[in-house]
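Q: Can I see a sequence and its folded structure?
A: Here is a first one.
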Amino acid sequence: MGKKDKNKNKGKKSNLPNNDKENQQVNVKTVSRYNWREFLSKPINQLLFKFAFFLMLFYILWATPFFQSYIVESIAQAYAFAAGVVLNLFGYGVTISGDTVISDQFSISIKNGCDGIEGLAIFLCAIIIYPATISQKIKGTIIGVLFLVFLNLIRIISLYMFGIHFPSIFDIMHESVWQVVFIILTLLALFNWIAWTKNVATTLK
């Protein structure tokens, strides 16, 4: 009888930890589901999630051979051509070969990171996910794209001039200064558009 009682007690004791573990797992799952729902219930988190989703889609598309060969290359060549036209107006006497601006003194190629595509993608993803009317999104897209294209063209032209006249600081301007300036001005353009949409909504009220 004593041995049987001990076995029964041992059985009961061994079941308690298992029950505790199961309860803990259920509690963890419940808490994680609650936290996830609570996270998504906040408007700012919804915007961030959508922004990350669309940006991820862009980079998936951007990494494809088709996008790199046809879209990126075409944009780089268009920038090189436009920069060459402007530089020749100032008497630099450059020639264009694909995505490269060439002269006897200096040459510059427009590659990934210098084509402004990623900054433009960030701007457009933000416009897509922001709660505004279709007409406001269209106006923001047109003005924003024109602004960022013009800004990147100025960057390419100025970098060529730095390479000619101030070659010692070309790398700093290319890798540091212009990168920061481009990001700041992209964000300022985005915040300006957001402020404009809010002003329009206030005026309509």
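Q: Show me another, different protein.
A: A second, unrelated one:
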Amino acid sequence: MKNYRTSKRIKTFAQYFIAVFMAVVTFFPLIVTFISSLKTNDEILLGMFSIPKELHFQNYPDAIRIANALRSIGNSLFVAIVTLIVTVVIAMPAAYVIARKSFGYLKAAYFLFMAGVMVPVHCTLVSVSKISSALGTKNSYTFLILIYTAFNLSQAIFLFTGYIRGLDRGLDEAAKIDGCGDLKLLTMIITPICKPIIATEAILV
């Protein structure tokens, strides 16, 4: 009994230690970034661990006024939200078909999408830049959203397919008995159940 309690305490301590360590690793860059944002340019050059002599909160209004930070943040939010919507609209039906149907070509299509996951985004930057120049789409929301969607589709289909495969097929059978077609089954039953994995994809986007 004593050995059991000791092992349980060690296990609990190890779990708390790992949790605290992961929290520190996660929040440390945010804390350093926040502290650096309150420094002058000269203080930033002294190193990221240096403590500012004075907290310069004026840096935030200056960033908004000089660097047009609000516009940049707005652009990022707009592109990210639209990219997420387009990605989910395209990836969810594709993942549903791959996970639930038995067509012969689906396995090859799935592996093709998986190959896209393994391609580093940075390897395509030069090609994307050349395409953008050739099409005259630099500084275009549409082109940027299409590129981000293309890069995120493989990952989204991989995540959604795995999640849908884990759902009980009895849901599909019950819905079809009630008269649901594939479209209604996907939009009314499968997609609401997939909210957790959609949230995961939203974080990754």
